[in-house]
């Protein structure tokens, strides 16, 4: 019987320079989106997908991440004594069902290098990788990961990679996959024949962009060991996935279903859009934000 996947890796070691000065003293992953930091949404998505062992890969000046995911009995007692059940519920991400682990990528050497630091944590098991600066919006945010894990198991894959369609003129910003045959319907896997990181403008092999969620077999760590640094001295996860394909390992793309999308908080424009959309969808305050935006629309 196949063992369920229980381990997840969150790379969160990037410098966040495109969001300076907001990230001068605060990690990008801890910037608020609505009522929560970005990284908390990612953790709650993993928890909802029954991924209970979570390794967060941090970098220098990111101790605040460890503090946020550490138990705070004094705060809990104060909220219990005040009878503040709403705020207690907001701390559900600290429930005892999850175990958090941390390691540090002291020198930025690429996403692939960051993931390679998790080899001992994974210890020969299949795992999930979820980027710490990308949010999934869906009626059930854990739905994509649950489906991807099922596909990974059923197809005996070395990797299943979430993808989404992007405008052709923006493909140069992303990792882009080449696929076998025609583009599949949303929510259906398709074999990947190649993958390239940020192709030159006008030379992308498709408009299917890697969307920050991955399921890997332990083979990815073998590929990472054999992946050469790029011209900047960084080890890229995209290059390791490409090596898996060249090694004959089965790698699949999984296109998001209708109503599912990724928010990549990589610059201020995307951060503002993400904040607005998540604030509007907030179950507690969304209606007030909608009223405010409607009133402001007359001034625009």
Largest sheet: 9 strands, mixed
Instruction: Order the strands across the largest sheet as they lie in space.
Output: 5-4-1-6-11-8-12-10-9
Spatial extent as radius of gyration: 20 Å
For this structure, the CATH topology is: Spore Coat Polysaccharide Biosynthesis Protein SpsA, Chain A
Strand content: 15-25%
Q: Tell me the overall shape.
A: globular
| SS content category | alpha/beta
Number of strands: 13
Brief synopsis:
The chain has 300 residues and is of the alpha/beta class. The chain has helices spanning 38-48, 63-68, 73-82, 85-90, 111-116, 119-122, 143-155, 219-226, 237-246, 268-280, 286-297, and strands at residues 7-11, 32-33, 36-37, 53-58, 99-104, 127-130, 134-137, 159-165, 175-179, 190-197, 208-216, 251-255, 261-264. The model has no long low-confidence stretch (mean pLDDT 90).
Question: Overview of this structure, please?
Answer:
33% of the residues lie in helices and 22% in strands. The protein has one domain: Spore Coat Polysaccharide Biosynthesis Protein SpsA, Chain A (Alpha-Beta Complex). With 300 residues, it is an alpha/beta fold. The longest helix has 13 residues, at 143-155. It is globular and about 60 Å long. The strands form three sheets. A nine-stranded mixed sheet has the order 5-4-1-6-11-8-12-10-9. A two-stranded antiparallel ribbon has the order 2-3. The chain starts with 6 loop residues before the first strand and ends with a helix.
């Amino acid at each position: 019987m196949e063992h369920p996947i229980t381990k997840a890796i969150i790379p969160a070691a990037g410098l966040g320079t495109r969001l300076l000065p907001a990230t001068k003293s605060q990690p990008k992953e801890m910037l608020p989106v609505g009522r929560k930091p970005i990284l908390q949404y990612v953790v709650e998505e993993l928890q909802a997908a029954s991924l209970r062992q979570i390794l967060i890969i941090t970098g220098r000046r990111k101790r605040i991440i460890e503090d946020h995911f550490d138990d705070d009995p004094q705060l809990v007692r104060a909220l219990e004594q005040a009878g503040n059940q709403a705020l207690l519920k907001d701390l559900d991400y600290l429930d005892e069902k999850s175990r958090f682990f941390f390691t540090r990528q002291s020198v930025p050497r690429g996403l692939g290098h960051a993931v390679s630091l998790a080899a001992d944590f994974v210890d020969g098991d299949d795992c999930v990788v979820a980027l710490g600066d990308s949010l999934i919006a869906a009626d059930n945010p854990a739905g994509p990961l649950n489906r991807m894990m099922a596909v990974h198991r059923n197809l005996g894959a070395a990797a299943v990679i979430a993808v989404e369609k992007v405008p052709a003129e923006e493909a140069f910003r992303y990792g882009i996959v080449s696929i076998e045959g025609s583009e599949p319907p949303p929510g259906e896997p398709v074999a990947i024949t190649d993958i390239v990181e940020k192709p030159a403008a006008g030379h992308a092999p498709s408009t299917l962009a890697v969307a920050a969620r991955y399921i890997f077999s332990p083979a990815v760590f073998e590929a990472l060991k054999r992946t050469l640094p790029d011209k900047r001295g960084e080890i890229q996860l995209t290059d390791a996935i490409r090596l898996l394909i060249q090694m004959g390992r089965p790698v699949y793309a999984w296109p998001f279903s209708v109503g599912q999308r990724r928010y990549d908080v990589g610059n201020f424009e995307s951060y503002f859009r993400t904040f607005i959309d998540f604030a509007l969808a907030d179950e507690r305050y969304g209606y007030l934000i909608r009223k405010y935006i409607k009133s402001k629309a007359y001034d625009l």
